[in-house]
Amino acid sequence: MQITITGHNIEVTPALREYTEEKVARVRRFLNTTLSAHVILKVEKLDQIAEVSIHANGADLHGTHKDENMYAAIDTVMDKIDRQAKKIKGKGEAKKKGAPSASEALGS
After folding, report:
1. Which one of 32, 49, 51, 94 is CB 3.0 to 4.6 Å from 99, fit for a cystine?
2. How high is the pLDDT of residue 26?
3. What span, in angstroms and rounded, lies between the C-alpha atoms of 79 and 93?
4. 14-25 vs 70-96: helix axis angle to the nearest 10?
């Protein structure tokens, strides 16, 4: 997986880079085909902002979170990304098992 970390108005320290890479790598539990991830860490006045975009085969995941602490912002935005990845994985597994689509289930 290729992870790009960019800092706007903030220096991305080795500790912050390692923490971010560790959190982003967790998404591979849900998506085996993750190709690339782009993380933007920003500081605007008193707000620490983390933006994450992950591009996988057939799926684009995106999340943004603003917090007073950069590590907390990274944790929260990765929780959002994890929920999106679980949803995508669930849809794929339902198709494999032959579950009816929403229109079929409603009898349309």
Report:
1. 94
2. 87
3. 21
4. 20
- Please give the tally of structural domains in the chain: 1
User: Which domain CATH number covers 19?
Assistant: 3.30.160.100
The SS3 assignment for 55 reads strand
Predicted confidence (pLDDT) per residue in 50-91, tens digit: 999 999 877 899 999 999 999 999 999 999 999 998 888 776
* 108 domain residue, yes or no: no
C-alpha 98/C-alpha 82 separation (Å) is 24
pLDDT tens for residues 28-41? 888 777 679 999 99
Structure confidence at residue 29 (pLDDT): 81
SS3 content of the chain, % helix, strand, coil (to 5): 45, 35, 20
Say if 74 falls within a structural domain.
yes
Work out the end-to-end distance of the chain between its first and last CA atoms, rounded to an integer number of angstroms. 41
Question: CA nearest 27: which of 68, 73, 83, 69?
Answer: 83
